[in-house]
Amino acid sequence: MAEHAAHAHAGHHDDRYVKIWAMLCVLLVVSIIGPMFGVRVVTLVTAFGIALVKAYLVAKHFMHLNIEKRWVIYILVVMLAFMAVFFGGISPDVMTDGGAQWHKTYVEPPVHPEAGH
Amino acid sequence: MGVPTGRLAVWWVLASEIVIFGGLLGAYIMHRIGHPAWADQAIHTNVWAGGFNTLVLLSSSLSAVLAHQAAERGNGRRAANLLLLTVAGGGVFLVVKAFEWTHEIQAGFTITSNLFWSFYYTAAGLHAMHVIAGMIVMLIVSAAARRNEHLHRVENIGIYWHFVDIVWIFLFPLLYIAK
Hints:
By secondary structure, chain A is mostly helical. Chain A is 68% helix and 0% strand. In chain A, helix 1 (2-33) runs antiparallel to helix 2.
């Protein structure tokens, strides 16, 4: 009887994982179809917004971060914060054409989105 | 109770991996925003191949977490088989990647073509090396699990594999969808 209950419990877990996987697959399809409309906002939400949701689902349900020790999550969040500092510190220089004592001499080529088709 | 030593080691590895991949992708994003003309290059990447590989990795993550579930139940044989299925998923991913790269290199898009392709091959290549490393460790863990030994390692390699999956979840829109 106890064995049967254990199997039923295990089966329940398996179903949950399969459901999460199915959700991830649906999100994948949306993330491919969304950008096909060519609308910038829709592309950003469907491609990158959904990537965040997919990563959250994998981290929470497959990596079991929801039941992991809190300080493990803090370690990972601190690493992500380092990345934010890196990006915030460097991107203003990388993405501008000049500063107080320098300017970019490289000339950006024109954009031809239809190239190759 | 603390975190078991093996799992703690995996979390520390992943903490350093966040900085490695985060730095690379952060650099790519800021350059991509600063160089709109990269869209002319990005248009040559194959969305369907990238999408299929995303499906393969998501599915391999499912088999990895089911392997963990089987190991927790003490079913080493099922855990080993599911780990082998996960390794097969990694194999399919690499084969698709090989075809993709062959096609792109033959079309003249190499790692030295321009900065977009440099980032493309570096990021996807670094990720592929992580896939290969995961497959090798998974084969070792699988062999032990089949003998019902070191079953706790099934969870550890699974956590690593899910992280590799998450990295690809971000690489896919950055390299394939953003045209």
